[in-house]
Description:
CATH class: Alpha Beta
Number of helices: 7
CATH superfamily: HAD superfamily/HAD-like
Order of helices and strands: HEHEHHEHEHEH
Amino acid sequence: MDNGxxxxxxxxxxxxxxxxxxQYGLVMGIISNVLSSLQVPRDLERYGLADFFNPVITSADFxxxxxxxxxxxxxxxxxxxxxxECVYVGNSPVNDIQGAKDAGFKAAVLINYEHTPLRDKxxxxxxxxxxxxLLELPAIIGMLLEESSFINPVCRVKN
Length: 159
């Protein structure tokens, strides 16, 4: 749960990566553990990224926090998808990777995060893919799209 003060900043490559991913025709959403239901939408607006994400699910609104599988399932339902169509991208092995796997997501991608909590560093949970930079994500998504007709961070190819 994000309940402390953090100086937030968007990854420098985020917008470029999102533009590429959007060209794949993906539905992209966010699941965030926060105390304020306004924080994530406000930050997305401030970063100029709000148009890339729908649904935006916060623990403050949903009432459960990651890694509980119900918040992942709610995001999938809100996007009109099946978990097996989805890929989750997150920075916490416990909250994000374990949660997505427990919810039945097709794949879970862990992105390096400079503030990884100690409990995450000790976990045995392994992602399907590990990336250092969001610009690595389009190649992974492209490969998965070639393998099958699934996908969704919440992502899916529009028909």
